[in-house]
Amino acid sequence: MKLSRRDFLKLLGISTATLGVGATMAPPLMSPRRSAIPVGPRHSKGVLIDTTKCVGCKSCQIACKQANGLPDDRPVALSATTLTIVDFCNISRKADTPEIRPVKRQCMHCEDPACVSACPVGALVKQENGCVTYDENVCIGCRYCMIACPFGIPKYNWDSANPKINKCAQNCTANKKRDKPACVSACPQQALIYGDRDELLKLAHARIRENPTKYVNHVYGEKEVGGTTMLYIAGTSFEALGFRVDLPEISLPQLTWEAQTKVPWAFFGMMGLLSGIAWWTHRHEHDKTKDE
Ligand code: SF4
Ligand code: SF4
Ligand code: SF4
Questions:
Q1: 119: CA distance to ligand 2 center in Å?
Q2: Which of 41, 55, 62, 245 is the most exposed place for a label (fewest CB within 10 A)?
Q3: Cβ neighbours of residue 29 under 8 Å, at least 6 residues apart?
Q4: How far apart, in Å, do the first and last CA atoms of the chain sit?
Q5: CA pair distance 227, 224, nearest whole angstrom
Q6: E strands, 135-248, where?
Q7: Taking a C-beta distance cutoff of 8 angstroms, is the pair 118, 104 a contact?
Q8: Relative to the CA of 168, which ligand 1 atom is closest?
Q9: pTM given for the model
Q10: DSSP code, position 49
């Protein structure tokens, strides 16, 4: 995706404005951890979520809590103690006849994650297997990852005396030597399939091709923000299921990097990178406010 002149100028304006503030506010350790340099090919693992098979039993949500030692607090949204949630979306356009579709949500484990680029201390790391891990012992609680994430995933632990963020890091697989994430193992409907991302994409497209009336022709996560390792297929529009459909196909760190290379003297360091990402992440909110 190319930057339009209008987008580029907006990005430039916001970043230049924040640079002055950022330069004085930035802690000494703040430097781009992993600049938005093009990502090489990975052998990412991932999960294909077939929302047409999901029955909303919440077994995945409960298994995630158990595997991560988190309290079963009857959650209604993602939080620092709920790393995966089953949402119930009403896709009906008629107020008197609701049509409910359950959708599991969690970190998308992006291929080129904005949270990793924004984190000044390297608490978030993109692993070779595709997982975006999180180390609370390194985290300083600055919340830049929350600003940068286009999916609103990292959540702050407001109740803690030493608050940090939390998100799905598939620690339940890595730490417990499971062969797949706990949520996948718990699903009784095979709505969640763990495997190589490339193979999952082939499977997703095959299902769509063979059942064109059952699925919409879109694998969510194949291209959004440069690709994610959590992939979704669905029988109704992703917008109706509450997914962001305004995201660019280029990753946000890469997008900011492109702008940075056009005006190197104006875009440097963490604040340029972060403000560029933050503008892309939140611009739909500004557009929505303008429309209302
Ligand atoms: S969804 Fe957000 S928190 Fe998860 S890897 Fe992508 S940018 Fe990071
Ligand atoms: S709050 Fe987020 S960005 Fe800040 S140190 Fe922790 S993981 Fe990194
Ligand atoms: S365990 Fe499977 S069927 Fe049950 S809510 Fe989770 S994804 Fe849906």
A1: 5
A2: 41
A3: 120, 121
A4: 28
A5: 5
A6: 155-156, 165-166, 192-196, 230-233
A7: no
A8: 4
A9: 0.82
A10: E
Is residue 11 predicted with pLDDT exceeding 50?
Answer: no
**Who wins on pLDDT, 176 or 202?**
202
Q: Which residues line ligand 1 (CB under 6 A)?
A: 107-110, 113-115, 132, 149, 151, 153-154, 167
Residue 110: closest CA among 121, 125, 120: 125
Q: What is the pLDDT of residue 259?
A: 67
Output the residue whose Cα is nearest ligand 3's atom 1. 187
pLDDT at 215 over 70: yes
Least confidently predicted of 100-109, 216-225, 261-270, 276-285: 261-270
Give the range among 27-31, 75-79, 185-189, 242-246 with minimum mean pLDDT: 27-31
Phi-psi region of 157 (alpha: psi -120 to 50; beta: other; left: phi over 0): beta
- Statement: 40-250 belongs to CATH 3.30.70.20: yes
Read off the tokens for 265. Answer: 């003297």
Place of tokens 């609701």: 98
Residue spans of the domains in the chain: they are 40-250
Residues 35-50 pLDDT 10s = 444 455 568 999 999 9
Alpha-carbon gap, residue 223 to 231, rounded angstroms: 10
Residue 107, exposed/middle/buried by CB under 10 A (0-12, 13-18, 19+)?
Answer: buried
Q: What are the pocket residues of ligand 2 if the criterion is a CB atom closer than 6 Å to any ligand atom?
A: 118-119, 121, 123-124, 139-145, 154, 165
Which residue's C-alpha comes closest to atom 3 of ligand 3?
Answer: 54
Distance (Å, whole) CA 19 – CA 38: 24
Q: Measured between alpha carbons, how far is 59 from 130 in angstroms, rounded to an integer?
A: 24
